[in-house]
């Protein structure tokens, strides 16, 4: 078949470049800025899922564990935040620079201070 002018022969393995999607300045304003609120409504109360946000991929081979993963991540993260205060300390470089290796990793280690919340 031909997709966007490219001939894709039968049985070709195709790997989606998720990084390119997540860092496309035509889709995301200043994509390298850590601004999670870009995914929230104006009052910051509701998560708004942009059509272009595809952490679980798309199509027939997309993640079948999406439903479980979303619940799991929510429970895991909210339990941690209920019990601990987690703050980036002054040594943390918050720029989203990457190391391109076999995978893509953050260039700078985060320095965080974790304290147990008092009851
Ligand atoms: C935050 C957590 C998760 C993320 C971000 C995630 C993301 C993804 C992505 C992007 C793919 C497609 C990979 C590709 O294109 O080749 C995938 C596939 C898959 N995921 Fe997940 N996943 C998560 C959690 C889970 C969980 C909890 C399960 C199972 C309980 C799961 C099971 C699978 C399986 C079996 C596939 C392969 C589907 C196929 O090739 O037909 N994932 N996942």
TrEMBL record:
It comes from the Eukaryota. The keyword Electron transport does not apply. One of its GO terms (molecular function) is monooxygenase activity. Signal peptide: none annotated. Its cofactor is heme. Heme binds at residue 63. The keyword Metal-binding applies. Keywords: Heme, Iron, Metal-binding, Monooxygenase, Oxidoreductase. Belongs to the cytochrome P450 family. This is Cytochrome P450. It comes from Medioppia subpectinata. The lineage of its organism: Eukaryota, Metazoa, Ecdysozoa, Arthropoda, Chelicerata.
């Amino acid at each position: 078949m031909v997709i966007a002018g490219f001939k894709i022969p039968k049985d070709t393995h195709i790997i989606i470049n998720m990084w390119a999607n997540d860092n496309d300045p035509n889709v995301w304003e200043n994509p390298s800025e850590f601004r999670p609120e870009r995914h929230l409504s104006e009052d910051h109360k509701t998560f708004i899922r942009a059509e272009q946000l595809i952490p679980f991929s798309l199509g027939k081979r997309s993640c079948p564990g999406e439903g479980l993963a979303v619940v799991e991540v929510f429970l895991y993260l909210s339990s941690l935040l209920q019990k601990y205060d987690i703050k980036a300390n002054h040594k943390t470089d918050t720029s989203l620079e990457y190391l391109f290796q076999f995978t893509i990793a953050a260039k700078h280690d985060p320095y965080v201070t974790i304290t147990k919340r008092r009851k």
